[in-house]
């Protein structure tokens, strides 16, 4: 891609950003532990409205007042691969309140690194969790005028969009999400 941009005389006026929307866990396939659906059976009589299970378990309960009981049931069960449970305040610190937003699950089960809720022989990794391998992705930025350097400041992929707008000479605050979340441009990107 870079060679073709150079060949067409466009490299000097092009901003190239390479990243990914998510990682894949585990990075080391030898660490994979496939356990299938162990979360739903652990709930016993607690009924689900919906469940999504792969690298995390997202659970929507028919009776939202049972969220703490559901968390206790999963915590007490064996072979759930449990790393951490997000429920109540732990959940609302990260997301919208599930009592006010039906898209937010009532309970999130984040398993230990390498554990995925599948029995598929084809899957060796999953995405969507909160572990290091899931949330860390490469980010490479190239444009004329940037010096070659490694920046170790933690960033979010949400910072890419406002950075592109600044590169185009546009105000990133015109993006509603940038204003609402106070998203900053990438560090060291536009330093003079």
List keywords for this structure.
single chain; 192 residues; alpha+beta; Gyrase A, domain 2; 2 domains; four-stranded antiparallel beta sheet; 7 helices; 22% helix; elongated
CATH level 1 class label of the largest domain: Alpha Beta
Number of strands: 8
Assembly type:
single chain
Share of β-strand residues: 15-25%
Give the biggest sheet. Answer: 4 strands, antiparallel
Q: SSE string, helix = H, strand = E?
A: HEEHEEHEHEEHEHH
> What count of domains describes the coordinates?
2
The CATH architecture classification of the largest domain is: 2-Layer Sandwich
Strand order of the largest sheet: 3-4-6-5
Mean pLDDT: 88
In the CATH hierarchy, the third-tier topology of the largest domain is known as: Gyrase A, domain 2
As a percent range, the share of helical residues equals 10-25%
Count of helical regions: 7
């Amino acid at each position: 891609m870079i060679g073709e941009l150079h060949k067409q005389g466009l490299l000097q006026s092009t901003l190239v950003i390479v990243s990914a929307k998510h990682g894949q866990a585990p990075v080391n396939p030898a660490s994979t532990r496939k356990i299938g659906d162990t979360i739903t059976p652990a709930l016993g009589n607690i009924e689900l409205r919906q469940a999504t299970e792969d690298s995390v378990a997202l659970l929507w309960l028919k009776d939202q007042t049972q969220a703490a009981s559901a968390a206790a049931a999963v915590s007490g069960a064996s072979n759930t691969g449990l790393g951490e449970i997000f429920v109540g305040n732990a959940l609302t610190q990260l997301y919208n309140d599930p009592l006010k937003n039906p898209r937010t699950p009532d309970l999130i089960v984040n398993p230990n690194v390498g554990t995925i809720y599948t029995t598929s022989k084809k899957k060796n990794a999953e995405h969507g969790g909160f572990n290091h391998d899931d949330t860390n992705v490469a980010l490479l930025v190239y444009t004329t005028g940037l010096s070659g350097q490694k920046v170790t400041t933690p960033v979010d992929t949400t910072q890419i969009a406002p950075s592109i707008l600044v590169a185009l000479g546009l105000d990133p605050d015109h993006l509603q999400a940038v204003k609402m979340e106070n998203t900053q441009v990438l560090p060291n990107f536009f330093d003079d």
